[in-house]
Design a protein that fits this description.
By secondary structure, the protein is of the alpha/beta class. It folds into 5 domains: about 5-185, 3-Layer(aba) Sandwich (Rossmann fold), CATH 3.40.50.720; about 185-275, 6-phosphogluconate dehydrogenase C-terminal like domain (6-phosphogluconate dehydrogenase C-terminal fold, Orthogonal Bundle), CATH 1.10.3660; about 275-335; about 345-350 and about 580-795, Enolpyruvate transferase domain (UDP-n-acetylglucosamine1-carboxyvinyl-transferase, Chain), CATH 3.65.10; about 360-580, Enolpyruvate transferase domain (UDP-n-acetylglucosamine1-carboxyvinyl-transferase, Chain). It contains 25 helices and 34 strands. About 50% of the residues are buried.
Amino acid sequence: MRTVDTLLVVGLGLIGGSFAAAVKSAGACRQVYGYDQNKTSVEEAAALGIIDYGCASLADGAAAADVIMLAVPMLAMKPVLEQLSLCLPEGVLAEKMFAEKVITDAGSSKKALLDAALDVFGEVPPWLVPGHPIAGSEKSGVGAAKATLFQAHDVILTPLAHTDSLALDKVKMLWEACGAVVTTMDPCHHDEVLAKTSHLPHFLAYSLVDTLAGNPDNQNIFRFAAGGFRDFTRIAGSDPIMWHDVALGNHQAVLAALDEFTEGLQVLREAIVQQNSQSLLGIFSRAQSARQHFSSLLQSRQQRAKTLPDSVIVCNDFSGSVLIEDTDKEVMDSMKESTQTFIARPGGSISGEFRVPGDKSISHRAIMLGALAEGETVVAGFLEGEDALATLKAFRDMGVQIDGPYLGKVTIQGVGMHGLRQPQGPLYLGNAGTAMRLMAGLMAAQSFDVTLTGDHSLSARPMNRVVDPLGKMGATIETSEGGRPPLKIKGGARLQGIEYHLPMASAQVQSCLLLAGMYAEGETVTVAPGIVRDHTNRMLDGFGYPVTCAVTCAESGSGEHGYRVAIEGGGKLTATRIDVPADVSSAAFFMVAASIAEGSEVRLCHVGMNPTRSGVVEILQLMGADITLENEAVVGGEPVADLIVRSAPLKGIDIPERLVPIAIDEFPVLFVAAACAQGRTLLTGAGELRVKESDRIQAMADGLTALGIDAQPLADGMMINGSGHAASEKKGQPVFNGGTIDSHGDHRIAMSFAVAALRAKDDIRILDCANVATSFPDFAGLANRAGMRIVVKVSTSE
Ligand code: S3P
């Protein structure tokens, strides 16, 4: 049953017209009426089928409607409310009648609307539900209206304590019918936030264009204005009346935002006057990483918008540079939400000398320990991927001064063990499980409360594995249902050292407890049931914090087989220099690519060869891969080497379970190698793969099967009957059919199937690849420079 019978939209511009069109096309009410001062807009809306009926007067429409949407400029709200007050039935303010007439709006300033209502009605009526859709376009007028304008966009409602809940529900229902995601907020907070993120950029764009237009040389200025100018000033094409009203209606918050911005601009100006490179690079690189972080925030919302139509395609020309194919000839705005599809062309080989991006695990830890150290820590080779940048941003949010990354260099001014400040809001960690689990340990020991949140995938991952032992240490952490994020961590806990035997071989859990252990009373002992990556202990050692490590095994009489690490609380960290090696997990894609593609030879430089990570090399060698190590060295406590990989016929093997934890992230691409091998490959003891960024056993089994491979998922592993041939038979034959694969937003699944294309008959189309940027920014560029052919298709939504 419909809860709204008749909707009246007052103001048939872009927003009002789009709202009417969206509600009508969703069938969320019986009929949609429209009214506008401008009769032509009413006629146009009716002709376009956006409304069912165009009203000749406001009174006509108001009498018939049970919900009235005010989509007029801010300063017109009060006169419209005045007119409505005259046509509302007597006593509508009285207790029982308000549910029958609901008024809502779509204006940019909520305080201005509430003030207007107060003036007109003498109180803010309970049936008034202020709202604001965070969507729009520089285009205006009912002709630009689109039923899809609000799809997957936020709508903020700002009800007061006495707002009627039925009225609120009706408005919420209408917006949700438009495909919007509804949140509620305090009205003043809304105005402050929007002043900064929406109003300020519009005023800057207007002001820049106006200033340049007034320059006597304006002909040349506009003639030679490049893409940056075009992108920056797109919104200066917006409706002047609307923005005039926003400037005056939200003047307090807008002035505060303008002042804050002016101060920032002054600092930038001074840096240029003083020729201060460090300060300039600091500003630019901080902004760059904040901007990347913001993009990843937007990407997490794209999960809700998977079905939106393509509007822009980015093609790679296979030389590593990116071509933009602008399909609908609209201005490409990189702030729009985007999804990525990889189209991996079949066949080919790879060659060349490469250094893949920095190690993700080490990059996270470098920020964490550098932030808590005394003195300045310089990190080289830092991974400029979204996961590590999320950690960097989180520590900035806690008051740590961090410059960079700039060409992989990050400089951290450590604040000491107790120098972090409470962040102003939740810490958003994107897709980064390592950031969340390790930081849970650190945050549990701080004096302030903090909330850790993440994207769609991270929000589905189990956190009880760290929350339970931290609870035993004395931490108070609230989770969502089933121990999922967000984690609400209570500050001021006094942690106690414990001895904890991990139920699973997880470096994240072990590291989390060691980090908490630095703050705990007494000793914290962790025992993992298998060798797990040991970057935390190595790095703690590098920062001068003692840890004791021992490998225990059943035969040695200790009664168990595992990896014991212990730490005493109350120590301190001393700043150091960190050299982050290339990530072996990223190098793995090229190891498999070179192995399976006939005629390939690559040198992968300076790859981390920590024995707790190098399982992938051993597994590939057991399968017959041709991998040799050169330039072996230990840099900053971590072993590194150049890997030379040549194509070789692979054979199926039973993967020894002892190698599972030390190759845990490489199984997706190892499954691709297994599919190209001759005979059966069996993996067991790898149940952890089911709780990674996706269920990697199921996702890989589904994808391989779709490409014609005999892949059987097991509860804790996989059995693959490889389609490869013996060395003596024809080499390099295709083993995969072409097809479409869902990567489930998992970076490693996406990259693995791109590698598979080297031995495919036809294109492999891989969906949902934007998260490749979490661990391997520009994977497609590097892969194409090596000889692969990956087209990146970006679909944007407005
Ligand atoms: C990581 C540990 C591993 C790994 C992850 C990074 C780390 O997770 O899969 O990508 O940096 O400590 P588990 O601890 O869950 O095995």
